[in-house]
Amino acid sequence: MEFLASSQSLRRALAAATWLVCVWGFSLTMPHALLASPTTPSPEAYSSIHWDLKTGRANDAISLLQNKLAKNSTDATAHHLLCRVYLQEERWPDAEQECERAVQLDPNNSNYHLWLGRAYGGAAAHTSLRSAYFLARKVHAEFETAVRLDPKNLSALSDLGEYDVDVPRFIGGGLEHAQQIAQQLAPLDASRCHELQAKIAEKQSDFPSAEKEWKLAIQTSPDPAEQWMNLAGFYANRKNFSAMRQSIENGVAADPAKGIALVQAATLLIQNHQNVRQAEQMLQQYLASSQQSADAPAFQVDVQMGNLLASQGDRAGAQREYAAARALASNYAPAQQATSGV
Questions:
Q1: With CB atoms 3.0 to 4.6 Å apart as the test, which of 182, 253, 300, 308 could cross-link to 196 if both were Cys?
Q2: Residue 305: left if φ>0, alpha if ψ -120 to 50, beta else—which one?
């Protein structure tokens, strides 16, 4: 019974593991990991690929990386970045393979283990329940390895803490361990610590404490747009839509560059059937922005916009968005499926 009852939370946790925290960019300690790896080329050699990741140009990134690997199949950085592109495209087996190869070539790189855990998480969220439980242990092992190799890897700590909150103890999770991770985060990043404490409180159905922690995460963040959206999501789950909308407004105001907060806000509005017209405008602003993020690649947002237009009866507009997505990421299955469904 415990096995079956925990399946839903397991799938949520594994799905979240793919894109949980700081999907764009390395952790704050990543430059040290780069310096520690004698086989890693200079970051400048991959600047255009990082730009492609950020702007959602999956086709271009894949072409460049495959060319690099044709010349040097032991390039761990190229395998790692190719894994991340495949994760954007939701190509789970391909992502697993590339992240595993990166770890094999550079086993002491904390960030490579983190992304391998995310790849396993994405695969597990889209497979059978039995396979998901097997992969869940691999997710946990990779997150723990990432933290062991670099105890100051903020993204790895956050992902491990999230896993511990959502996944039962008998497959590696548990709130007691999550509390320990929160204490590790406290001196490194107060905002992330409060975020994890909020998730722990929510798991315990202590909603007043959760709300307090989400607000403390905002207060302690130097760039609180994402934290405002987290608070908005908390209010959405509590069906407090007026507070959700106010938090969204605050979060968008805290992100004047028109970055990922717009996508987060639009998603919340669409999911909760609140001011869909405003959501459409936010997605348009994001797609026109120079501050796009690999956390919300443009081709995914194009599909989201297309789905929104299709739901409003604008078939031609939806097809334009799906075509734009395919032009950036021709192997992105949701774009292909959406095109045939309109």
A1: 182
A2: alpha
Q: Which residue, among 299, 271, 274, has the nearest Cα to 287 in the 3D structure?
A: 299
**Residue showing tokens 């604008």:** 314
Please, are residues 295 and 260 in contact by the beta-carbon 8 Å criterion? yes
- Encode 191-234 in three state secondary structure: HHHHHHHHHHHHHCCCHHHHHHHHHHHHHCCCCCHHHHHHHHHH
Q: Please tell me what DSSP assigns to residue 152.
A: T
The answer to whether residues 111 and 146 touch, using CB atoms and an 8 Å cutoff, is yes
In this prediction, residue 45 has a pLDDT band, given cuts at 50, 70 and 90, of: confident
- Tokens 């700590």 locate to 157
Closest CA to 30 of 43, 15, 17: 43
Q: Which two tokens stand for residue 1?
A: 């019974």
CA distance 15 to 119: 10
pLDDT band, very low/low/confident/very high, at 258 (cuts 50, 70, 90): confident
Q: Which amino acid is at 316?
A: A
- List the helix and strand counts (H, then E) for the chain: 20, 0
Structure tokens, 248: 């969204």
Phi, psi of 294 (to 5 degrees): -65, -15
Biggest distance spanned by C-alpha atoms of the chain? 56
Token output for 174? 């548990």
Joined tokens for residue 269: 């509005």
Secondary structure element (H or E) that encloses residue 134, with its range: helix 129-149
Stretch 7-27: mean pLDDT, rounded? 40
- Burial group, residue 337, by CB count within 10 angstroms (0-12, 13-18, 19+): exposed
Written as six digits, the tokens of 194 are: 């409060």
Kindly report the average pLDDT of the chain as a whole number. 87
